[in-house]
Write a structure and sequence with these properties.
alpha/beta; Transcription Elongation Factor S-II, Chain A; Rossmann fold; 2 domains; seven-stranded mixed β-sheet; binds 1-O-phosphono-beta-D-fructofuranose; binds manganese (II) ion
Length: 445
C-alpha cells in the first residue's frame, strides 16, 4: 500500500477493479439479493392468487418486472438511469447522477462496473424501494421484513447476561468496554461464535479470547471523553447519538450499551438514527425498532429481556430516548457531504457529546469509501465530517480500513487474503476533536 502524498485523496472503491470485494459484490452478491427479493414476491403472488387478491398480485408482478430489468442492467453493465418516483430524496439522487463531481466519480455516464461502489450498491437498494413505492397496493411492502424478524430470537440465551451487565454495572472503564465490545461484535454477531453460553463469566471470557481481533481499540479514550463530560458538562447537556445498523442481536446489544450509559448518567438524552426505507437487508427502520422492542416486552420466558423492553418503551414514551429518521442516511452520499447535503442533520449532531456509528456501511461512508493507506489516521480520513466526538464500532466486512498500526495489515494479509471481508476482525475507533479550524478543514478537502 503506497503512502499518500500530502493532501491527495485516494479514489473510491469500484467494481472496475477485478478481484476486489466491490467487483465480487456487483457481479455476484447484489444479483443474488435481487433474486431473493424477486423470489419473495413470487411466493407472495401465489398466496395472493389463492386468496383471489388479483389486484395486489398484479402489483407484485409489476415490481418483479422492474427488478428483473434492474438485475439485467446491472449484470450487463448498462448506464444507470435517473430515478422517477415521489420520495423526498429524489432530487439528491438525480443531482448526483447528473453532476457527480470528479472527486466522487472518475468517469461518466455512471455504469454498474465503473461507477463508485458506494453509489452503485446504495442505488440498488434505492432502486428496489423505487419499484415498490410506485405501486398502489404494495407501496409499503418491506422485502426484507421476514428476514429481519427472523434474526431476533428472544429465546437465544446469549442475551440475559449482557442485559444484566447493562442494568447492574456501575460506571467503570472495564464494564463500559465490555458493553462496547458486545455492541461491536453484534455487528457480526454469530450465535455459533459464542454458542449456547448461559453464564456471564463464560461470556466475558469469550470476549477476552476475541479481544485481540479488535485491530484498533480506542475504548479507553471514549470512556475518558465521557468521564470528562460527566465531571465538566451539566447533566442536561449529555446527549449521545446511535447511528444504528442491523436489527436483531446488534440492535439488542446497542440498547444494552444505551441503557448502561443512561442509567449511569453518562447520557441524559439518547437519539437513535434509523433508516427511512428498507436498506441493506437488515438495517433498522422505525417500524423495526418498535417491532423488536414490543417483541422484547412480551418475552415472558426471559424476564430480563422483557424488563429491558419495558424500560426502552418507557424511555421513548418519556422522550428521554428519541428515534429520528432522516433520508440522508439512505442516500449514496458519504458523510463528508453531510454539511452541504443535509445541514440540519449535521447541525443536530453538533449538539451531541458522542455519536456512535455502527457497522460496516457507516464506516465506509465515514471514510468516503476510499482506498486510504491502512495506516492513514482515522481522524484525517473523516475529512470535514466532525460534528461531535465520533466513535465507529465496525466489524470489517469490506476491503478498506484506516488507523491501523504499522505492519498489522501486512501481517494479516500473509495469514489470510480475505481478512478484510471475513467479519472476524473489528475496530473501535474514536475522534474527539470537533470541526477542524477552517484552514485545516480546507487542507483536508
Ligand atoms: O453495514 P453492515 O450491516 O455492517 O454491512 C453492510 C454490508 O453487508 O454491505 C456491504 C457489502 O455488500 C458491506 O459494507 C457490508 O458487508
Ligand atoms: Mn447493515
Amino acid at each position: 500500500m503506497e503512502s499518500l502524498k500530502m493532501n491527495s485523496i485516494p479514489e473510491r472503491l469500484s467494481a472496475r477493479y477485478k478481484g476486489t470485494f466491490a467487483y465480487f459484490t456487483i457481479r455476484d452478491r447484489l444479483p443474488v439479493t435481487l433474486t431473493r427479493v424477486i423470489d419473495g414476491l413470487s411466493r407472495k403472488i401465489s398466496k395472493l392468487k389463492a386468496e383471489h387478491n388479483e389486484d395486489v398480485a398484479e402489483d407484485a408482478i409489476g415490481i418483479i418486472s422492474k427488478l428483473s430489468k434492474l438485475r439485467n442492467e446491472m449484470q450487463t453493465n448498462k448506464e444507470i438511469p435517473e430515478l422517477n418516483d415521489e420520495f423526498e430524496d429524489l432530487p439528491i439522487w438525480n443531482n448526483y447522477l447528473r453532476n457527480a463531481d470528479q472527486l466522487q466519480e472518475s468517469e461518466r455516464p455512471l455504469k454498474w462496473f465503473t461507477a463508485s461502489w458506494l453509489f452503485t450498491e446504495c442505488y440498488m437498494y434505492r432502486g428496489i424501494f423505487s419499484a415498490i413505492m410506485a405501486r398502489q397496493f404494495l407501496k409499503s411492502y418491506d422485502p426484507y421484513e421476514e428476514q429481519k424478524q427472523q434474526s431476533f430470537r428472544p429465546e437465544d440465551n446469549i442475551y440475559p447476561s449482557v442485559i444484566q451487565l447493562a442494568m447492574n454495572a456501575g460506571r467503570s472503564a472495564e464494564k463500559f468496554s465490555q458493553l462496547l465490545q458486545f455492541s461491536l461484535w453484534g455487528n457480526m454477531f454469530d450465535l455459533s461464535l459464542f454458542g449456547n453460553v448461559d453464564v456471564s463469566t463464560k461470556l466475558t471470557t469469550q470476549l477476552e479470547t476475541i479481544k485481540s481481533n479488535i485491530l484498533s481499540n480506542d475504548d479507553r479514550q471514549i470512556y475518558s471523553s465521557l468521564e470528562y463530560r460527566w465531571h465538566n458538562v451539566p447533566t442536561n447537556q449529555r446527549r449521545i447519538d446511535f447511528v444504528l445498523d442491523n436489527i436483531g442481536p446488534e440492535f439488542l446489544f446497542d440498547l444494552c450499551l444505551a441503557e448502561y450509559l443512561y442509567r449511569n448518567n453518562m447520557a441524559n438524552q439518547i437519539y437513535f438514527h434509523v433508516k427511512s426505507i428498507p436498506w441493506f437487508v437488515s438495517d433498522v427502520m422505525l417500524k423495526d425498532f418498535f417491532w423488536q422492542v414490543e417483541t422484547m416486552k412480551v418475552a415472558h420466558n426471559c424476564p430480563v429481556i422483557s424488563e429491558l423492553g419495558r424500560k426502552v418503551h418507557q424511555y421513548i414514551q418519556d422522550g428521554v430516548w428519541q428515534i429520528v429518521e432522516d433520508s440522508f442516511w439512505t442516500t449514496c452520499h458519504d458523510y463528508n457531504d453531510m454539511r452541504t447535503i443535509a445541514p440540519d442533520l449535521y447541525n443536530s449532531l453538533e449538539k451531541s457529546s458522542l455519536v456512535i456509528l455502527k457497522g460496516d456501511l457507516n464506516y465506509r461512508k465515514l471514510i468516503g469509501d476510499r482506498n486510504w493507506p491502512h495506516t492513514y489516521p482515522f481522524k484525517q480520513a473523516l475529512r470535514s465530517f466532525r460534528p461531535a466526538p465520533l466513535a465507529a464500532l465496525r466489524t470489517i466486512k469490506a476491503d478498506l480500513v484506516v488507523g491501523l498500526a504499522d505492519g498489522v495489515s501486512d501481517e494479516l494479509s500473509k495469514q489470510d487474503s480475505n481478512w478484510m471481508t471475513c467479519g472476524k476482525y473489528g475496530l473501535i475507533q474514536f475522534c474527539d476533536s470537533k470541526l477542524l479550524a477552517n484552514s485545516e478543514m480546507d487542507a483536508s478537502r
